[in-house]
Amino acid sequence: FDDLVVTTPAQVDGSGIIPQQVLIGDGTAMVQTLKRTHVISAGGEMGLTIPESSVQFSGPGINRVMLGRGTQFTNFALGAIVNLSAAARGPAGCGVVFRLTGETDYTLAYFNQDGEYGVSSRTGDNFSPGVYGQESGFSSGQHHILIIASDNTIYYYLDRVLVGTVEASDATGEVGIAVVNFEGNSTTCSYSNLWLWRWQ
Hints:
Layout: E1 11-12, E2 15-16, H1 27-36, E3 45-57, E4 61-67, E5 75-86, E6 92-102, E7 105-112, E8 116-123, E9 126-127, E10 131-134, E11 141-150, E12 153-158, E13 161-167, E14 174-181, E15 187-199
Antiparallel strand pairs: 1-2, 3-15, 4-14, 5-11, 5-15, 6-7, 6-14, 7-8, 8-9, 8-10, 11-12, 12-13
């Protein structure tokens, strides 16, 4: 080798710097990129790959479909392309449920066609304050989500951009897909190229 140059990921106080944007690709390519930048652990395995899945709902609230036949995860990265289709304008949305330990105990990451997005943990009937934001010019149609749950920290990327970080319990639980309707609307959320990489 001539003029060999080796670089290492940028670090602050010994910790990797979380990128503000990520490249979108299939699960294998994204995992390789996230491992190389020390965003996720280099040791681990692909826990889920689901080419196509969907969930529908016409009432207000959250309707979910759990994935993985009861398999539980703690530390993971989950990515998917989500196509949101709603019968009418309004706060109809799609999301991912994770760290579910009971019917009313889970964390939800979502976005809706009004451009609102967020991450919040539910315990009983209460949702804790977490991440919330809104983007202008947002619409229904296809969007990409990436969720990284690493110990007590959750990173949420929407359409390649880091939109929020929140501290949360590192509970072990199931994952699933969800329609998130803030009011009644006939909403369909179709997920493609959904993958989940997990580590200890």
